[in-house]
User: Which sequence fits this backbone?
């Protein structure tokens, strides 16, 4: 397996090279003004100054020279200046990605755990009331529009009951986090609160993450549940499962030790992809709950035609996708030793 | 183990639920004023900014020589100046500057700081910025940019000042700066600032009282890399992009609040200035000393559902509410105030309500659909489609025909629009000059929705050809603005109903894109709004009728018409006696009607909603946003 991982990591630069070529090609469709935003925030308004800027940053040089310069900047973390974010794109990503990562972690765990548990339960009790209820649950989750579900949760659990607020932190907690005494190790409020020994801030951050996490989870459980159920049903029909039962093993042992690990392979693929998509940000959930993350910012940049930001985020998301796929493939091999990785 | 995990889960859930503020309603965040709004500032530089979101932040942090006297837009109280006087000829203002005032970063206010701040602003003079408000009073009617001053002082005789290259005309640039310094000067020993105007400007204090008159600490500015006051170097800081200004995301004022941080797209936080100098209240009963509310959080919350939920939960003290959503908020209102503050007429409508509402606030703002006499087609123009009068598009000079313009005016249904878009809380304007202002006459003729007249005008347009060939065009509004969307769709529906060969596509563009095409003069009709900079009719005819006006320059009036407007506009600005000015502005108002230059859509009445624990709010028509003066507020039940 280690050879496989090393081979995939060696292939990573080639993949990234291809992606960078594609993005660089897209950059060439921009005007010199917009391409100059890769290098400066102060775009001059007069033609003479613009020409000087074009010469200064080599925007009139051959394409391969421009590409090497651009890649050099990207490697150094310079993705240009975001007009919409009013700061460098890399700074915006550094600020917003932890929020998205935190939301992904807190929703990813219930998505996978609950989706798999309900899927297994549904398969083991096929056609009984548990199975019917979970399947209805899955259909409703799959068909419910995110913004409707999110707004409903917001109105009931925030506006009416005041249990789970919108945003990331209450005012008092935000002041604690922004103070000099508080160290932001990760940018994720729940994790940083624990690392700073502030249980009160942890609870507050958790209260704020509940509703967006539930919104995201509910819509994803359905998919994981359905895939797990189908896979489990197929696995439970296998001969070795019948043999295991015949040998006198308890149903619990048959399901958990023999059937479930084999049934999880397709779930790993779907679940992994699901989590990767969450890392790209979820616009609607982030907007409804005023939870500023990658998805919201990306959509905002697109709406305001902030092309440099869009391209910077695209490159970042491409890297996440590539690394995420690698992780999924490795996990595949960990779960099932029969899988020969080539 | 299972039992313990259940117990643990219950404990966790309960601890999440039972936290302060959940059990009973009380003043939430007593030390913080929380605002949920949907307008992100463009810049925090008071000389650069020309939008209300930026101005609202500046109002809380910066101060000028004078301040508005609470609700009055034309009465002033001492701020950084303890007294002031105007010479008999109306041309020279002298301000005595207050001693002992400290800037937030520690510097001491001196008269040269005030002079520097005004000079810096006028020399910075970014394109489409606010400095014209000062340049014309200081350098004469017709001066709209500092480049006009360079042109004049250097005797360059350039027809279009915007083409002047400051790196080439170095001497002229330096001389322009010297001339500015003669007009705006300070005497630190005497403790005074002197402003010498080119013409009497009755509204100068109104402009100075706003963010453009903000006092900056010159020494601190220079340390940050800003202009050092030398006339040989000012051009390096001229016309910067927003992000290039030293004060783009920094603030150092003298006001009751200090800038803490700005996280773009999320929030701006201000904290109380504990060393605030004010020992005497601005008006009777007003606050003194440090602000009572210690922290301000201006949160960007664009989603209406979220703002509504935050209102209900008590997590915000003020939130932007568009007219379309009044009906959702009104059930939560406990008390309505009808006269702009808590001292006026009020009405308790719901004892169980949690909000207060201020209604019937006549906003000095107007929105118009401005018709472009000659659309710019350079580089292509998708909004006029074929670009010809062939039924598949419109020619660039489509709106140069007065019959077309009048037909569009008669096609607009004001009653439906005002009811649908503003819930009835608006009036139809009679022209560029809003009601109750010098130049406004209640008996001024105006257009009304009249399909028969619209049809007659269309039939007369383009020598009768238009009715036969038909036309097609795109009508653009900025994405998210529902009011403008309704206006556009009304125009479309009513025009298309007259003739099946008439086709109008309503298109939305994101704000940045909309601004770009509007500035380029590519829109056949521009739907845009104006909020007055100062309370005088000159600030209304400028954007809507001046050939170089903020909006009207993109309408490309024919020279003869533009010259006719310009002559009257210049006359009006030079006079000071209202009796002499009134007929000039009445004539301009009538000319706007006779020439049907714009469909003047509406002048709104505003409403603002606050949590019931917010005390001390008042309405001033020149306040950029309802949260511009948080110093005057307190939070108590």
Assistant:
């Amino acid at each position: 397996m280690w050879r496989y991982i090393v081979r995939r990591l060696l292939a990573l630069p080639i993949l990234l090279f291809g992606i960078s070529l594609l993005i660089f090609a897209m950059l060439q469709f921009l005007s010199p003004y917009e391409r100059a935003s890769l290098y400066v925030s102060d775009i001059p308004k007069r033609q003479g100054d613009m020409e000087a800027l074009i010469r200064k940053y080599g925007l009139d040089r051959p394409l391969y020279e421009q590409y090497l310069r651009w890649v050099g900047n990207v490697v150094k973390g310079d993705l240009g200046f975001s007009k919409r974010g009013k700061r460098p794109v890399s700074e915006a990503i550094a600020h917003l990605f932890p929020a998205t990562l935190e939301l992904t972690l807190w929703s990813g765990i219930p998505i996978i755990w609950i989706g798999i548990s309900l899927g297994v339960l549904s398969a083991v009790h096929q056609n009984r009331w548990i199975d019917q209820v979970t399947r209805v649950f899955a259909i409703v989750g799959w068909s419910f529009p995110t913004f409707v579900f999110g707004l409903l949760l917001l109105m009931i659990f925030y506006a009416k009951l005041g249990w789970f607020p919108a945003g990331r932190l209450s005012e008092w907690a935000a002041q604690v986090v922004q103070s000099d005494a508080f160290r932001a190790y990760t940018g994720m409020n729940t994790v940083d609160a624990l690392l700073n020994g502030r249980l009160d801030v942890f609870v507050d951050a958790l209260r704020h993450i509940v509703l967006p996490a539930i919104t995201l989870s509910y819509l994803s459980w359905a998919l994981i549940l359905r895939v797990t159920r189908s896979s489990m049903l197929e696995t439970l029909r296998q001969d070795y499962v019948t043999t295991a039962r015949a040998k006198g093993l308890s149903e619990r042992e048959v399901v958990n030790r023999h059937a479930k690990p084999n049934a999880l392979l397709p779930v790993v693929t779907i679940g992994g992809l699901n989590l990767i998509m969450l890392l790209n940000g979820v616009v609607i959930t982030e907007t409804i709950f005023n939870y500023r993350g990658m998805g919201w910012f990306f959509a905002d940049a697109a709406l305001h035609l902030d092309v440099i930001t869009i391209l910077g985020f695209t490159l970042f998301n491409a890297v996440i996708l590539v690394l995420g796929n690698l992780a999924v493939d490795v996990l595949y091999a960990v779960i099932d030793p029969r899988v020969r990785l080539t | 183990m299972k039992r313990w995990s259940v117990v643990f889960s219950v404990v966790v859930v309960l601890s999440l639920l039972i936290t302060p503020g959940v059990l009973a309603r009380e003043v939430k965040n007593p030390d913080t004023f929380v605002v949920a709004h949907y307008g992100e500032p463009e810049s925090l530089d008071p000389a650069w900014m020309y939008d209300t979101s930026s101005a609202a932040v500046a109002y809380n942090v910066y101060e000028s020589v004078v301040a508005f006297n609470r609700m009055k837009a034309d009465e002033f109280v001492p701020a950084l100046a303890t007294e002031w006087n105007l010479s008999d000829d109306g041309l020279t203002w002298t301000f005595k500057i207050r001693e002992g005032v400290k800037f937030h970063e520690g510097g001491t206010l001196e008269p040269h700081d005030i002079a520097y701040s005004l000079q810096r602003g006028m020399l910075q003079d970014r394109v489409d910025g606010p400095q014209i408000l000062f340049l014309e009073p200081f350098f004469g009617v017709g001066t709209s940019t500092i480049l006009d001053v360079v042109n004049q002082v250097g005797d360059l005789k350039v027809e279009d000042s915007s083409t002047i290259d400051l790196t080439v005309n170095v001497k002229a640039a330096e001389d322009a700066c010297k001339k500015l310094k003669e007009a705006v000067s300070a005497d630190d020993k005497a403790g005074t600032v002197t402003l010498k105007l080119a013409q009497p400007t009755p509204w100068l204090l109104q402009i100075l009282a706003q963010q453009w008159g903000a006092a900056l600490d010159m020494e601190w500015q220079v340390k940050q890399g800003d202009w050092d006051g030398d006339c040989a170097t000012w051009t390096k800081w001229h016309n910067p992009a927003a992000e290039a200004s030293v004060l783009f995301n920094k603030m150092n004022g003298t006001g009751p609040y200090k800038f803490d941080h700005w996280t773009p797209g999320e929030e701006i936080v201000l904290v109380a200035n504990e060393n605030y100098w004010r020992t005497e209240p601005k008006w009777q009963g007003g606050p003194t000393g440090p602000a009572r509310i210690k922290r301000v959080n201006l949160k960007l919350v664009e989603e209406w559902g979220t703002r509504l939920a935050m209102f209900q939960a008590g997590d915000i003290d003020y939130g932007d509410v568009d007219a379309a959503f009044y009906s959702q908020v009104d059930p939560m209102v406990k008390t309505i105030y009808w006269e702009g503050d808590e001292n006026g007429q009020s009405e308790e409508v719901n004892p169980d309500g949690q909000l207060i509402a201020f209604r019937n606030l006549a906003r000095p703002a107007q929105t118009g659909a401005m018709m472009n006499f000659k659309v710019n087609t350079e580089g292509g123009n998708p909004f006029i489609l074929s670009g010809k009068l062939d039924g598949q598009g419109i020619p660039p000079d489509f709106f140069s025909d007065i019959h077309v313009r009048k037909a569009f005016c008669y096609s607009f249904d004001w009653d439906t629009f005002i009811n649908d878009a503003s819930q009835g809380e608006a009036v139809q304007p009679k022209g560029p000059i809003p009601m109750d202002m010098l130049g406004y006459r209640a008996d001024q003729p105006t257009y009304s929705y009249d399909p028969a007249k619209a049809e007659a005008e269309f039939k007369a347009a383009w020598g009768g050809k238009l009715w036969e060939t038909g036309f097609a065009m795109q009508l653009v509004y900025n994405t998210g603005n529902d009011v403008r969307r309704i206006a556009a769709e009304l125009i479309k529906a009513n025009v298309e109903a007259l003739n099946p060969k008439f086709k109008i596509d309503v298109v939305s563009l994101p704000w940045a894109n909309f601004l770009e095409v509007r500035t380029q003069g590519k829109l056949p009709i521009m739907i845009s709004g104006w909020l007055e900079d100062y309370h005088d009719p000159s600030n209304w005819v400028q954007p809507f009728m001046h050939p170089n006006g903020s909006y009207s320059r993109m309408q490309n009036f024919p020279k003869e018409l533009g010259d006719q407007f310009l002559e009257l506009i210049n006359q009006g600005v030079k006079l000071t006696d209202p009796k002499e000015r009134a007929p000039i502005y009445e004539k301009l108002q009538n000319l706007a009607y006779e020439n049907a230059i714009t469909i003047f859509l509406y002048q709104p009445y505003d409403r603002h909603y606050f949590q019931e624990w917010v005390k001390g709010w008042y309405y001033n028509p020149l306040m950029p946003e309802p949260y511009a003066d948080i110093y005057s507020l307190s939070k108590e039940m």
